[in-house]
From TrEMBL:
One term of GO molecular function: mannosyl-3-phosphoglycerate phosphatase activity
InterPro entries: HAD-like_sf, HAD-SF-IIB-MPGP, HAD-SF_hydro_IIB, HAD_sf
Pfam hit, one: Hydrolase_3
Keyword Phosphoprotein carried by entry: no
Sorted UniProt keywords: Hydrolase, Magnesium, Metal-binding
Keyword set includes Metal-binding: yes
Protein name as catalogued: Mannosyl-3-phosphoglycerate phosphatase
UniProt superkingdom: Bacteria
Membrane-spanning parts: none
One GO term (biological process): mannosylglycerate biosynthetic process
Lineage: Bacteria, Pseudomonadati, Pseudomonadota, Gammaproteobacteria, Enterobacterales
PANTHER family (alphabetical): HAD SUPERFAMILY HYDROLASE-LIKE, TYPE 3, PHOSPHOSERINE PHOSPHATASE
UniProt organism field: Pantoea rwandensis
One Gene Ontology cellular component: cytosol
Amino acid sequence: MLRLNSSLMIVTDLDGSLLDHHDYNWEAASEWLIRLKQHAIPVVICSSKTAAEIIPLQKRLGIPGTPFIAENGAQVALDGEPTLKNEPEENYLALCSTLRTLQATYRFNGFHDFSDAEVARFTGLTLTEASQSRQRLGSEVVLWRDDSDKLDDFRSVLAEHELALTQGGRFWHVMPAGCGKGIALTQLLQSLAQQKGQTPTTIGLGDGPNDVPMLEQVDYAVVIKGFSKTPVILQRNDQQNIYHTAHVGPQGWREGLDYFLAQPD
């Protein structure tokens, strides 16, 4: 088992992992969050959620100011302030413009097609949370309404526009090519190593296909049982450092940390 000390870093997905897939509750994980804070172990959120969603959530979780990765890697925040490769609004507006032209060929909707109230209705978020989820700067959430066998063609067409498609636990996500949770985590770890002179030992937790790049990069991976039809398969040789949970959501999150981390005295 790993020791609880500040050389560790927890990297976690949110929906379906730290947060319950249905009601976004994290009560089952709260005891571990307290322990980690007591031992000065940072909890780094790595999510498809926006910075506007993550920053207030960090405060509620008791981890304000911690580095985070938003929009599936389109944004990286080292000190609570997200950065992007290009101009944020231009990025998002250009991406939505491209998607709008593709709606003539494929049946789908993006969050930009909906109001806050509509997003709240089909996600279960509050109106405020739905508004925060639509404050996107580098990626778009897509509700695919076409045949599943057209997804590969859609992915190819997106690639022609230098865009990529990834599947989350609930929705599809379109973002600039070259982005992703794994790439963003590598960038974040490199920056932290330059700042602090050392690279932490990482435990990653996730439940969806879009978490695979992140779970491939961490030292220890917890694959939380999820609801996606696409299985989470890791191409790693160190199977002893991978744990698949029997429980879903925050119960699975707690189970994964119970497996890898020594209990405090």
